[in-house]
Amino acid sequence: MSRNTGPSCRLCRREQAKLFLKGEKCHTKCVLDARPTPPGMAKPQRGKPSEYQIRLREKQKLRRMIMMTERPLRRMVGKASRSTGKTAVVLLQNLELRLDNVVRRLGFSTSLAGARQLVQHGNVRVDGKKVAAASYRVRVGQIVSLNPKLKENVGVKLALEFAEKKSVRPAFVEFDAANLAGKVLREPAREEVSFPVNDQLVVEYYSR
Fold first, then answer.
1. 28 exposed, middle or buried (CB, 10 Å; 0-12, 13-18, 19+)?
2. For 55, which of 36, 61, 131, 205 could close a Cys bridge (C-beta 3.0–4.6 Å)?
3. Of 32-41, 75-84, 113-122, 187-196, the least confident
4. How many CA atoms lie within 13 A of 82 on its CB side?
């Protein structure tokens, strides 16, 4: 899987929005506060952006927030379009319930990159079975738990403290602090999704 190895803050500047790629640091030391212009531009772009450009930037924003390459995101849009619900809402629900994102929303990590590392290193279990695929789609009723050996891990402890302080856990999951686990109670509502994008523009980009 390809991944971005450049500065994360440059991506936020390019999309002119907080993508929260660095977890807690994005809440305290955001580069957008000091450098609000896109990279390579001393001044904001003149003129009105085209309809294509607006949709492209919204798609890129979502792709970077979920840390996906173009092909798997296109496949997810196609899968959502074949579902019975509204394409844009189903797409965001599927992205929200990816295993790496559920691990982040439960508070085991402050960033999606950190959550993905926990999954890929075999430290996450779904219904008691180890799952190392970050793209795994967690279903309603399943329990996501962390390796008990990580209970004293400094990174995990700091992430849990941050989650308690910010109250970032959504209502569609139930958290069990004693067992370092969480249960998905239901499908997330549109307003509970953690990706602040215009989902309709993303669907329109792929429908062109």
1. exposed
2. 205
3. 32-41
4. 5
Identify the CA nearest to 15 among candidates 28, 3, 30: 30
pLDDT of residue 103: 95
pTM reported for the whole predicted model: 0.80
CATH class assigned to 98-186: alpha beta
- Dihedral angle, C-alpha 72, 94, 134, 12, nearest 10 °: 70
* CATH class, 1-47 region: mainly alpha
Question: Is a pLDDT exceeding 50 seen at residue 158?
Answer: yes
pLDDT value of residue 1: 43
- The confidence score (pLDDT) of residue 21 equals 56
Contacts of 166 (CB under 8 A, 6+ apart): 27
Tell me the average pLDDT across 79-91.
92
CB neighbour list of residue 59: distance below 8 Å, 6 or more residues apart: 73, 201, 202, 205, 206
Taking CA atoms, 180 is separated from 3, 119, 136, 152, in Å, by 28, 14, 19, 11
- Sorted by where each begins, the domain ranges of the chain are 1-47, 98-186
Find, among 22, 162, 28, 190, the residue nearest to 106 by Cα.
Answer: 162
H or E stretch at 162: helix 154-166
Angstrom distance (rounded) from CA 176 to CA 110: 18
Q: How far apart are CA 204 and CA 35, in angstroms?
A: 31
* CA–CA distance, 208 with 192 (Å, rounded to integer): 28
